[in-house]
Amino acid sequence: MSVTVPQTELQPGLSGTRAALRRNFWRGVARVLRRKPSRMVGVAIVALFLLMAAFGPMLYPAHLPRDNNALYAPPSLAHPFGTDFEGTDVLALVVTGARYVILTGLVTAVITVAAGTLLGLLAGFHRGRWDTALMRLTDLQLTIPGLPLLLVLSTVWKFQGPLAMGLVLGLLGWGGIARAVRSQTLSLRERGFIEAARGLGLSTTHIIGRELLPSMAPYIAMNMLIAVTGAIYAQVGLFFLGVLPFDSNNWGVMLNLAVFGGGALTSAAALPYLLAPLLAILLLTLGIVLVVDAMDEIFNPRLREE
Amino acid sequence: MKRLAAIAALAALAATAACGQVAAPAGPGGVYTTIDGAKQIDATAPINPFNPQGSTFVGYDAMSLAWPKNSLTDPNQFYPGIAQSWTTTPGQGEVVVHLRPDARWSDGKPVTSQDVRTSIGLAYTQGGSAYTVNAGAAGAAADIQVVDAKTIKVVQGANRSNTFLRNVLSTVVVPDHVYGKLLPAGFWATLTAARGTGPAADRAKAEITGLTQKVITFAPPQDVSAGPFVLERINPGAALLRRNPYFYDAAKIVPDKVKVLNYTGNEQIWNYLVSGKLDSAPFTAVPAAVMGRIKSAPGNAVRRGYSPVAASMAFNQAHKPYDNVHVRRALAYLIDRAQVTKIASPEAGTPSLTTTGIHGDSAKAWLGERLATLNPYKVDPAKADLELKAAGMVKRGGTWRMPDGKPWKVELHVPASFSDWVAAAKSITSQLNDHGIDANVTTSADYVLYLDELAAGKFDVGFWLMALGPSSYNIFQRLYGSANGWSLLAGRLSHSPPGKDGNWMGGPEKIDGIDPGELTNRLNLATPQEQKNIVGTLATVTNQQLPVIQIYDYVNTQFINTSRYTGWPPDGSEALRLPAGVWMQLGMIKKR
What we know:
The structure holds two protein chains of two kinds. Chain A is mostly helical. Chain A has one domain: MetI-like fold. Chain A is built from eleven helices and no strands. The two termini of chain A are 46 Å apart. By secondary structure, chain B is of the alpha+beta class. Chain B has three domains: 142 residues, 3-Layer(aba) Sandwich (D-Maltodextrin-Binding Protein, domain 2), CATH 3.40.190; 154 residues, Dipeptide-binding Protein, Domain 1 (Dipeptide-binding Protein, domain 1), CATH 3.90.76; 248 residues, Dipeptide-binding Protein, Domain 3 (Dipeptide-binding Protein, domain 3), CATH 3.10.105.10. Helix content of chain B is 32%, strand content 22%. Chain B contains 20 helices and 25 strands. In chain B, strands 13, 14, 15, 18, 19, 20 and 23 form a seven-stranded mixed sheet that branches. Chain B has a four-stranded mixed sheet with strand order 1-12-11-10, with no helix packed on it. In chain B, strands 5-6-8-7 form a four-stranded antiparallel sheet. In chain B, helix 10 packs antiparallel against helix 14 and helix 11 packs antiparallel against helix 15. Chain B: Keywords: Signal. Chain B: Pfam families: SBP_bac_5. Chain B: InterPro entries: SBP_5 (IPR039424), SBP_5_dom (IPR000914). Chain B: One of its GO terms (molecular function) is peptide transmembrane transporter activity. Chain B: It comes from Sphaerisporangium melleum.
């Protein structure tokens, strides 16, 4: 015999609870951010770069202006980071180049996390043949050396655009997350609340999507942010090595041209041209690390210093 | 305690080796420090000049019969090397080489004609220039005769080339008593058979080319050199060579030792130069700011001279709209070559006067007053507009489009590893963008890949090395050779259609009745006066048709340091492009 409770009776109470939870969550977030000002700085930095990626190219003309008489000009008010080999403002290059770098990072992170989480959850929850097959696939992926493969791929594929770049980096980076998510799933699936869900006859989709996934969301979210930094290093590194197509405002290309074309490591003239993209990468990484620090406390109650 | 001392000594030795430093006790002549511009050091490579990475150094312990002078127009001028003198018959049908009577190997044995013959035999296994088994190749040797112990005669085959002497005298000579065993018994009979045609000849060719790896990998236990130096030891950081007491002109050689430093890239060479470490360094691309620092180091100075190379932007004329000469001319009118050179190669380039196919310095010598009659293609957007309109291109919204209104995008390809080309290409595309032509730069990961893609016809426009003098044939072969469809097969010149047999330039076979490939081929045999006439015609055709747009002509920029040695070749010297070991052989280098 079963008792059916009309949804209409439950709904007001449920939605009220959810709203309260949401309010409490955001209050918690604000509290965690306020506790350490560095976390606010992190959020500000990440927001600044996201704004740069979204609106930066709109601030400048499609073809950046050049000053033929100011090649490798030193920093000044007009050019805070000097100019490049063509007399183009380096700050403008960094700002307009942010979109490619960040978009690639985000695409990589989404693919890495989506693929890694899905495969890890399936392997850990189903165990048995699923686990064996998916983990061998993961092992195979982990054994593929990313950088050499990218170097080889670059000879046959031009990686036109951040989406293609992000796709390749994402497909090369999900193995670690898949393994970690599987471990967590194996641990969580033995807990009482999963047992109870099974006992209630809830579907696998519900158990994975509504019971397991929220428990791992903080871990996954943090990995996603860290994957962004990894993707930025990887793509900038490839551009720096000169194996990817030229794009004058790509940060890696700027580093390459500053070192190999401008001699930035030997003379000071091209040093600002080298330092500007380096500083951008450093700042963005710092911002992400500070945000991850805040997220760690937000999602992990044991770290909260109430 | 003793054990500790031994460990400390070993650790010090290991540290020295790890740092790539070779301990070199200096004698009165001192240690001359330089780099090898042709290759980086691979300490595991055999001491073998046939190995591209071999641990031998041209001019120091690897010797040619003679050393080519840096002449503007004459490829047949040389400084003597192991050959004391040489004679040729008219048309270079035969070259007779007389070796130095007192030339000896570093083990005391005399250098003989047999050594030269063995060296030529080994060169056949590697192929190329005068020593090829390809039937009908122009300028291939047909017979090698030992006249006496110090005289050897090399006879040219039926398809003559006036670069034969140059190629013969460039032969690197190795000792027969070390390398002779690499040539199997009956090698010379096989070589004769390989020069023919048919299955037997093919088998003989395969037998000879099958020796390639055996020769390249051969590792003599020690260096046996006929040059002024002999390899003492080598590690990943540097090679140390000591003076060869048996060198025929030992009295002219001043340094006791030569240290050849290794490098991983230009930046390391710049740092060596900035620190004043190098007594001399061959051509190295240097940014203007770095050049300033190099010049400010005590004793450092720069020597500049003719460099028979130019950088150009080459078109695939099989691709639209580059099949239309008006489009190519329009682009030429829009490119400020001086600005490109200032950005890309301020220290090692001069903007090309115009497009002739020839380096600017030698163009004056080849063309004389005719040079002034050619179109200089000075920047002129109005003329460019007229040319584009003549090609049927249309301008909409400030941007030029194809005649059918479809977008036109100039994709300029360069290899990523050539930083001056990348900067030049970026500057060109910026200038084209300024004039309403959508242009961007696309790079290839490395030069070999770039050349492969270029040859496969994948690019519309790409950077191209040209004007490779001083031989007039070599100069125009870059424009009207195999890359543009003309190839010499079995002694017959043929033209392949665009997209076939490496024809990626896709130019027309005849232009106003002139066959530029045929004219270029005739340069192989022409007398100096005939060459001048042909060069004039080809330069005019090139200037009008623009299969390429010549951007800048390279300047050979070398570095010297006057703190320890003197007697350097002056600016523009004919010896400037030769290794410093040859300068020493010529008695130029003195201790300060």
